[in-house]
Amino acid sequence: MVLDEATSKDPVERQQYYRLTRDLLAGAKYHGAAMNRSRITGDMFARIPALLLEGMTKAEIAAMYSVTPGTLVVLCSQRGISLRRGGTLPKRTKLPKRTNLTLPDEPLPLSDGVLKSLSEAARAMGKDSTARLVSDLLEKIASDGLYKAVLDEEAA
Questions:
Q1: Is the overall model pTM greater than 0.70, yes or no?
Q2: Which residues pair with 88 in a beta bridge?
Q3: Residues 6 or more apart from 116 whose CB is under 8 A from it?
Q4: What is the pLDDT of residues 13-23, one digit of tens each?
Q5: Cβ neighbours of residue 20 closer than 8 Å, sequence gap 6 or more
Q6: What is the pLDDT of residues 65-84, one digit of tens each?
Q7: 97: which of 5, 42, 45, 79 is 20 to 30 A away, CA to CA?
């Protein structure tokens, strides 16, 4: 069925045309997704760290597996495989839900020099605020138990 949208005034014909077009496009999307499946098997992924240790570059590995280097990077990243001379990527830890901490009855005594230093560090690190930097620092100290190390005290 060929329909010239500008000239067709029959609503039934128009609806049939739209349904046919939608179904054809849905089939094309499905077909495209099937065509983009990775050609790299689990065994091939398992060999990548060893190939890197042998001195192969990611471009060489990508060519060997018939994918682009960018595709190889994405697929390896999704599977936790590092493309840096063998090894897996560290497991990402999900950050806990943030809670705003306010200490209305307990002021935080910080000197002007410390506030200026924190502000400059936040700006240099691309943080959106000094409060964000302070929050990130405190979360890291708490999650890794770095209290004594940061305060330069002996571990018990």
A1: no
A2: 81
A3: none
A4: 777 777 777 76
A5: 1
A6: 888 888 888 888 888 888 87
A7: 79
